Amino acid sequence: MPAVLFHPDHRLWLLRGPGSAYAVRLAEDDSVRHVHWGAVLTADQAAEVAAPVSPAASSFEAVAGADELPAESGARFGPAGLLVRFADGTRGVEWLYEGHDVDGGHLRIRLRDRHYPLHVELHYRVYADSDVIERWTVVENRDRSPVTVLRCDSASWTAPRRARYRMSHLVGGWNSEFQLRRTEVPVAETVLTSRRGLTSHHANPWLAVDDGAACEEHGEVWSTALAWSGSWRVTVHRDPVGRTTWTGGFGHEGLAWSLAPGETLETPVFAGLYTAGGFGAASRAWHAYVRGHVLSHPDETRPVLYNSWEATGFDVDEAGQMALAARAARLGVELFVMDDGWFGARRSERAGLGDWTPDPGRFPAGLGPLAAEVRRLGMRFGLWVEPEMVNPDSDLYRAHPDWVLHMANRGRTEMRHQLVLNLARPDTAAWTHAWLDRLVAEHRIDFLKWDANRPFTEAGWPGHEDPDRLWIEHTRAVYRIMDRLRADHPGLRIEACAGGGGRADLGILARTDQVWASDNTDPVDRIGIQHGFSQLYPAQVMSAWVTDSPNAATGRRTPLRFRFHVAMAGVPGIGGDLTSWTEEELKESAELVAAYKSVRAVIQHGAQHRLRGDGTLTAFQYVRDDDHVVLAWCPTRPFGHGPAPLPLTAVRPDGVYRDLDSGAVHRGAVLLRSGLPLDLPPGDHASALVRLRRIE
């Protein structure tokens, strides 16, 4: 059956996925209204779905039906996704349908304003292998006067009518990102947003809605994710008569964009997913979508890396890095990354940022000898960079103080002694691309850790007639620079970082390979961070380090095995001071790295299942064909109360499974009902890695 169908008698479009359907129709006023999002329907069945009518019929209620892109128009009182003001002061839109186009799984509905030459396209795209629906909006001004765009969202979504609604979303802060929260949706407007110029540590542009009864393995879930790496806003609206909608897109409230005559504005993708299989099935569907339609190199296996930051801080030199590289190679590390401190006058966070040439005092012959030694040891070579920032104490800032975000007659707020370069400026963006391109080419850089260590402040552009557009154009410039680098250097891989997990979203993942989820490497804290991260993002893109004990952030002491087992849930790296590790620790680390390599194909490319056992026992189960990997962690437990066997979910009840390390054989029905016995060491911070293979 075609992915997109049009029912002309009912002016209705139906989009089909493998296990879901999405339907919209044209109302009498030519607005595009939501009809259905859920289980599979035929076009005729969707045509029978009645338009919702408010039970409180009065002159104080909104028009019936939910708009696919709500705009100011008539009796519409909820949050608008499109806010425009024309040159004569008129606001709002009155729709006129102009037609539609279908190209495979891509539907484009063409609309315009009835009076003004403002044209709007609503885009939908579905794939044969996914229930994810991609949506975005294109606005074009064909008038001779500019149009002020006060808000232009990518899409609005509508959940079916239910007795109650629950919302799942991610909150946090620096060192505590991706904390999962599940709360009842209040009868009100709930705004999730970042006003920081980055995706942010404090919220993530993903949310899920259910009827309050969904769990990890069962229940209907409607979830959405915005592919944008700058400021954003998602507004959830539950009205008093029982309807829940949400609208979202780039930019936060209060910004305005002047759309010049002939200019077009295209929004980022706001993707949505329905599943009847609970939160776990929703996550696995998102993971498959990221691999199949977002990542550039989904089939690659991410390497085990070493990063020098926690070992050296800013005290970086050639001899010290070579010593660390030698020890890293002994452990089986495949990628050596030198962090901050290698360039300019960078002795601390106070100076040198922006002067991207190797410090001759620390690297007398440049980076060539270190890169050569790293490769001689059998590893790839990577560098930390922070292209969007500058220290006022730098040659770059002294030469170009106008290149930073700033406003006339306002101070320039420093955070971490940094200011933000305005990459919306073509000259600043061109200079940034040039030095990155030169650096990668001259040293054959394999990997960049792209960091951004502060949000926007004084986000102005003196002399520019439309300064608010920098909020969007800066992020677009970051995308363009990354895209050009990857096109010109096909072997280059990039890790997205913003002081930890401040830039994790589907937009940045379209031009990077992995995300640094948090600066917090404490394994106990990381369990919660990684649980929230997994709601949307697959293990293949989650970078996690094993660092020293006690932990630099929390002071907590944990066993090396526990630290490794937590990091193995994604793409593990090592970030401790290897020169201070004992021979016993180095030997155990090498064994654990080898153990990870034996299972990483399953972890990075398999289906992930979240498990919960007794007390604080949690786990991930990864499945790829007949191979299963279980990583289990028990941070604390009362004396004498070891957890019971861990129930698995992704095994066949009639299957037989062998433990590849112990040789024990387990029946699938027993693993499902009674659980997998775990050989956990005594005490707190216990963990286990189990490899199973189905043999019958």
Question: What do these coordinates show?
Answer:
- Residues 32-260 form the Glycosyl hydrolase family 36 N-terminal domain.
- InterPro entries: Aldolase_TIM, Alpga-gal_N_sf, Alpha-glycosidase_related, GH, Glyco_hydro_27/36_CS, Glyco_hydro_36, Glyco_hydro_36_C, Glyco_hydro_36_N.
- This is Alpha-galactosidase.
- With 696 residues, the chain is of the alpha+beta class.
- The chain has three domains: 80-293, Distorted Sandwich (Beta-galactosidase, Chain A, domain 5), CATH 2.70.98; 305-605, Aldolase class I (TIM Barrel, Alpha-Beta Barrel); 611-694, Golgi alpha-mannosidase II (Immunoglobulin-like, Sandwich), CATH 2.60.40.
- The strands form seven sheets. Strands 6, 7, 8, 9, 12, 13, 15, 16, 20 and 21 form a ten-stranded antiparallel beta sheet that branches.
- α11 links the parallel β30 and β31 (571-574).
- α7 (426-443) runs parallel beside α8 (470-488) and α10 packs parallel to α11 (560-567).
- It is globular and about 75 Å long.
